[in-house]
Backbone:
C-alpha cells in the first residue's frame, strides 16, 4: 500500500492545514504514544520540536541509529515521558450496563464470577477523543516500517490492543500486514465474481493467524513475569496452529511452553513446529475437546498461563486482521467476510475489529459475516439451523480440515453474538466439497489449507443460492499456510481418498527416461 500518499490524502480531508498526528499540539488531543509511533522515521532532534515539519514521506532523511543500538533501544530512547490516557480491562462478556465486575489485565483470570467468558473492554471515551480520520492516518502511517513495535500489523494498532504495555515487554515477530490477495481467476472462472479477495492470514511467522493473538498473549505473560507474577510457563490445547504459535513466541522470549496435542490428529508439519521450538509436547490419546478440558483443569491447578482463545487477550490481536482488511481497501467496507470456525474465537475477533472501526468513526458500517464449518465438526451450524434454540456440543469426526475438528467450542457465545450483530450466516462443507474447493483454488495459483477450502465452499454455496451477489466485494479469510497440510493434497491428487472422486486430481505422470516416451506423453497432453 502506498501508505505515504494515503497518509497525505486522508489528512487533507481532515484539516485544510494538515499536520501529521504526532505533531498535533493540543495536549488533550495528543496521546503520547503518537510521538513514539513515528519518531524513528525522523532524526530525533527534529521530531519533537519542529511543528512545521512536513509529513513522514517528505521528512528529512533519517539519521541511521548508532551501530550499538537496536530497534528496541531506539524505541526506548524515543519513549514519551507521560503515560498515554488509554486503558483496557477484563469485563464479563456481553455484560449488561449494570455490571460492575471488572479485572485489571495484570490479573490472571480467564472466566467471570459466574463462570462465563470475559472480554477486553477498551476505554472508548478516551479513544473517541480522536476522530476516525485521525486513527486512519495514524494506522496508515505505521505500515511498512521497522519501527519497534509498530512494524507489526498487530502493534501498529497498539492503542486498541494493549494500550498500557511497555514497548520493551512486547514479544513480536512483526506479524500481520498479511497479503489481501485479489482472487481474480478463481472469482471469474468459478463464481463470476470480479471483487473476490483472500486475506492470507496464514502467510505469517508460524503459518497461521494464531500469530496475531499470540504476540499479545506472550507479551502480556512477559510483562507478568517481570512483575514477578506466578507464571512458570504457558500452556495450550491445540489442533496444531495455536501450539506452533505459542511455542515460537515463547521460545523468542525464553519462556517455557507446554502444549497438549491430540495424538495422531494434527499434521506432521504442525507437530514438528513446537518440537523444534523447544516446547514440552504432550501427545494425548484423546481429541481436541479432551485436550482442552485437560488444559483448563491443569491451568487452574498449576501456575501455567492458559494460551487458548478462552483467554480474551488472544482476540485483541486477532481482531487487527479485520482492521487491516479495511485499511487495505483504503477504509472501504467489504460486503462479506467469510471465516472458517472451530473453537470460534476468530469470528468474534473479526466482528470486534470491524465494530471498533465503526464505533470510532473509521468506517460507517460493518460487513456481513459468514462462519464456515466442516460438516464433520459442525456444532455452530446445527445451532444456527435450529434458529439458535438450543446449543448441543457434538463429537467431532475426522476431517481434512483437522485444525477445526472441534465439537465443543469455547467461544460459542462470542460467535453467536458476532453473527447476530452482523446479520451473519453459518454454512458447512462436506469433505468432498472442501477438498474440491481447495483444489480449485490451488489450480488458479493459490496454495491454500483445507480450512480455507471450507470457507470457499461456503462462498460457492452462497453464490449459487444468490445470497452473495456477483458484484459483492467479498473477503475469504485464509487461516493457515497450505504447506502445513501437504498430506491432504497428496492424498487428493493421488486419488487415495475413500469415497471421494477427487475430480480435480492432477497426479504426476510416470514416464520412462527416453525421448520417444517423453514426446508421446507430451503429445497426448497437448492434444487435450
Ligand atoms: C487453520 C485454522 N483455521 C481456522 C481455525 C478456527 O479458528 P477458531 O478456533 O478461532 O474458530 C483454526 C483454529 O481453530 C485453525 O487453526
Ligand atoms: N485451531 C486451534 C484450536 C484451538 O483454538 P484456540 O484459538 O482456542 O487456541 C489450534 O490450532 O490449536
Residues:
Amino acid at each position: 500500500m502506498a501508505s505515504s500518499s494515503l497518509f497525505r490524502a486522508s489528512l487533507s480531508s481532515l484539516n485544510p492545514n494538515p499536520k501529521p498526528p504526532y505533531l498535533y499540539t493540543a495536549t488533550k488531543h495528543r496521546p503520547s504514544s503518537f510521538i513514539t509511533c513515528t519518531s524513528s522515521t525522523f532524526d530525533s532532534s527534529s521530531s519533537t520540536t519542529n511543528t512545521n515539519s512536513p509529513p513522514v514521506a517528505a521528512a528529512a532523511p533519517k539519521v541511521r541509529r548508532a551501530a550499538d543500538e537496536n530497534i528496541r533501544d531506539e524505541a526506548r530512547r524515543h519513549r514519551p515521558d507521560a503515560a498515554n490516557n488509554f486503558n483496557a480491562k477484563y469485563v464479563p462478556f456481553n455484560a449488561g450496563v449494570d455490571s460492575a465486575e471488572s479485572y485489571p489485565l495484570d490479573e490472571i483470570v480467564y472466566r467471570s464470577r459466574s463462570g462465563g467468558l470475559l472480554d477486553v473492554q477498551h476505554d472508548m471515551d478516551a479513544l473517541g477523543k480522536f476522530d476516525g480520520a485521525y486513527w486512519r492516518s495514524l494506522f496508515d502511517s505505521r505500515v511498512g516500517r521497522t519501527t519497534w513495535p509498530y512494524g507489526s500489523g498487530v502493534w501498529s494498532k497498539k492503542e486498541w490492543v494493549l494500550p498500557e504495555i511497555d514497548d520493551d515487554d512486547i514479544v513480536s515477530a512483526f506479524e500481520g500486514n498479511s497479503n489481501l490477495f485479489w482472487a481474480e481467476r478463481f472469482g471469474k472462472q468459478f463464481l463470476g465474481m470480479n471483487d473476490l479477495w483472500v486475506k492470507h492470514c496464514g502467510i505469517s511467522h508460524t503459518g497461521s493467524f494464531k500469530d496475531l493473538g499470540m504476540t499479545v498473549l506472550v507479551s502480556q505473560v512477559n510483562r507478568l513475569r517481570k512483575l514477578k507474577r506466578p507464571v512458570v510457563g504457558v500452556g495450550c490445547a491445540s489442533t496444531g496452529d495455536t501450539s506452533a504459535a505459542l511455542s515460537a513466541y515463547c521460545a523468542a522470549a525464553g519462556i517455557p511452553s507446554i502444549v497438549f496435542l491430540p495424538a495422531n490428529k494434527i499434521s506432521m508439519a504442525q507437530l514438528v513446529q513446537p518440537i523444534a521450538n523447544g516446547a514440552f509436547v504432550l501427545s494425548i490419546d484423546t481429541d481436541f475437546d479432551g485436550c482442552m478440558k485437560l488444559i483448563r483443569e491443569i491451568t487452574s491447578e498449576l501456575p501455567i498461563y492458559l494460551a487458548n482463545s478462552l483467554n480474551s487477550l488472544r482476540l485483541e490481536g486477532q481482531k487487527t486482521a479485520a482492521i487491516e482488511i479495511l485499511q487495505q481497501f483504503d477504509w472501504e467496507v467489504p460486503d462479506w467476510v467469510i471465516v472458517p470456525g472451530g473453537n470460534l474465537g476468530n469470528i468474534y475477533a473479526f466482528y470486534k475489529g470491524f465494530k471498533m472501526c465503526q464505533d470510532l468513526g473509521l468506517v460507517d458500517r460493518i460487513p456481513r459475516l459468514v462462519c464456515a464449518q466442516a460438516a464433520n465438526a459442525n456444532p455452530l451450524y446445527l445451532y444456527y439451523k435450529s434458529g439458535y434454540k438450543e446449543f448441543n456440543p457434538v463429537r467431532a469426526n475426522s476431517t481434512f480440515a483437522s485444525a477445526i475438528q472441534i465439537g465443543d467450542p469455547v467461544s460459542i457465545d462470542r460467535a453467536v453474538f458476532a453473527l447476530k450483530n452482523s446479520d451473519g450466516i453459518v454454512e458447512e462443507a462436506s469433505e468432498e466439497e472442501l477438498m474440491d474447493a481447495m483444489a480449485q483454488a490451488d489450480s488458479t495459483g493459490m496454495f491454500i489449507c483445507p480450512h480455507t477450502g471450507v470457507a470457499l465452499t461456503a462462498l460457492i454455496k452462497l453464490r449459487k443460492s444468490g445470497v452473495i451477489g456477483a458484484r459483492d466485494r467479498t473477503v475469504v479469510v485464509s487461516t493457515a499456510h497450505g504447506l502445513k497440510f501437504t498430506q491432504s493434497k497428496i492424498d487428493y491428487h493421488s486419488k487415495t481418498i475413500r469415497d471421494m472422486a477427487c475430480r480435480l486430481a492432477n497426479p504426476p505422470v510416470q514416464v520412462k527416461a527416453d525421448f520417444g516416451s517423453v514426446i508421446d506423453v507430451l503429445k497426448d497432453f497437448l492434444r487435450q
Summary: The mean pLDDT is 90.
